[in-house]
Amino acid sequence: MKIHTGKKWQNGFLDYYCSKKEYRIQVLAWKNLEKIEGAYYIRPKSLKMALRYLPVVGFYGLFTKAWSRFREQRRNDKYVSCGIGKIIETGDNSEFKNNDIIAFIAPFHPHLVERLTLPQEFIFNINKDILPQLSSKEILLCSLNQRSESNHWWQDVISWSIYSGRDISQELKKRLEQGLIQEIKNTNWNNCEKINTQIPTIIKETKGEVKKLDSRKTGVLFGFGNYAKTNIISFMKPFVNITTIHEIDPTQIWQKSAQKWDSSPFPRDNEKYDVYFVASYNHTHAPITLNALKQGAYAVVEKPVAMDYEELEEIEKAIKQFGPKIFIGFHKRYSIFNDWAKKDLGVNSGDPISYHSVVYEISQPKYFWYSWPISRSTFFANGCHQIDHFLHLNDFSKPKDFDIKLLQDNAIEVWIELENGAVFTTVFSEKGSTRVGPRDHVELKVPGKNIRITDNIFYLAEDETRIIRKRKMYKTNSYRDMYIKIGKRIANNEQGDSLKSIMVSTKLMLDLEEKLQRQKGWGDQYIKAKEKFWSYFK
Question: Are 143 and 164 in contact (CB under 8 A)?
Fold first, then answer.
């Protein structure tokens, strides 16, 4: 389809995926209401910032990061808009019929799209008396600089997504309808720009065809964000032929990165690959991973592998039935620092290594998807790295006691005691400097020896009389090493992460998250959000 982006009406984009509970709409009139700020991490274009990152990530890391962010400019240009359209697909819905002329709210979309998909909550009947002169051969476009003053009636649905788990109450829907109809009435559509659509594009949710195969295993990637661009695509290339990429945002598609593209969030019924790379929204990880295991395929999945106990139980059953073919993207497990630490501390496998850390994560943008109720807490999404690293160094000895506390400035304290005698403490906070991104300070301890790891860059081991080892590496090296090691294991048909490591690490994080959820007073927020999300897809 066509999208108005970069001040141009451009062709070649995939259509949005249309679930059975959504309608596909041909746009006839479109009005931008507000440009959305704070939906993504957007760094300023600054030479000083680039120079600050150079010692942290190196030349290659800086280049790939900058190139990836540059390619996200179209994605970042999002608006809340409203308009008038014609229903062209109905799915399992019956409220509206094909060819019905309706009014709609587009809560999280580019400057203008030729077509879009929306659930019933954002579609409304409209009286023919207030319709402007419409044509199937053009779209009336009212950009922001042409709109009149408004009362921001759309405020409660800014950046709403079918993937968010956010419910639209009947009361809110009624307010939205009133605001929308009044907005359409008050708009001078005669002064709007007219976008030519005389030659409509064909509806396509997929693009391309897999033709080039070689001796490598075939792979599919879900989620084409910055992490996937800079790590998965780059480092897995020697081992896996990633032929297909699933990406729900049409503006993210970069044709050269794959032979085939698909806007579906989940695998199609006829898809089959040797390796599934899962870097999509956290709450989609488990279903895609389970699909891979049932096919006998590998799943390389970003953390977390499960969002709740039910999903973890399903994964445990699948591993026992189909084999251990999951690799979780915990990069700290693959750091060269681990080998040095065990040698410098003089410990054997299973010996207790106590772990103490102070962690700073960048504060989330206001409308970033981590704020969705279905995403759970940012601690669950990001605090898992240090906890999993601690468990990994202690051969996943089982926890015998633990607790978590939410402090008055929203920092989080955690302590854990393991059966092997190791102890863990951490303070997790989103308050601090964003100068070079997330920071962490880790100390590993055994009697008479100490190791300090700062930002996964600086390593220092010492005993009571001397410095044993002092080293430095680029922060991104552990990601590279992780994918190279995983890639080699997949190429050699080796087993994935052990069932014990998956169960101990994920179960502990879920236990801590449940306690934190109660302290935050969230009640059954996640459960309701999960039900809402799946109501669109089942």
Answer: no
SS3 235: helix
Would you call 341 helix, strand, or coil by DSSP? helix
The tokens of 326 are what?
Answer: 């999951």
- Burial tier of 243 (Cβ tally within 10 Å: 0-12, 13-18, 19+): buried
From residue 428, how far is each of 25, 414, 424, 425 by CA, in Å?
44, 8, 13, 10
Helix then strand then coil, in percent of the chain rounded to 5, is 35, 25, 40
* Tally of helices (H runs) and strands (E runs) in the chain: 13, 25
d(CA 345, CA 338): 10
| DSSP-based three-state secondary structure for 536 | coil
Cα distance between residue 480 and residue 469, in whole Å:
23
Two structure tokens written together for 479: 């990601």
Residue 79: both structure tokens together: 């608006």
Name every residue whose Cβ is closer than 8 Å to that of residue 230 and which is 6 or more positions away in sequence.
61, 64, 65, 68
pLDDT tens digits, residue range 8-65?
999 999 999 999 999 999 999 999 999 999 998 877 777 777 777 777 778 777 777 7
The residue count for the chain: 538
**Residue among 452, 453, 444 nearest 422 (CA):** 444
Say if residues 142 and 33 touch (Cβ distance below 8 Å). no
Asked whether the whole model's pTM tops 0.70, one would answer yes
Q: Is 269 helix (H, G, I), strand (E, B) or coil?
A: coil
Burial of 40 (0-12, 13-18, 19+ CB in 10 A): middle
What single letter denotes the amino acid at residue 412? I
Cα–Cα distance measured from residue 153 to residue 155, given in angstroms and rounded to the nearest whole number: 6
**Predicted confidence (pLDDT) per residue in 313-339, tens digit:** 999 999 999 999 999 999 999 999 999
CA-to-CA distance for 465 and 224, rounded, in angstroms?
49
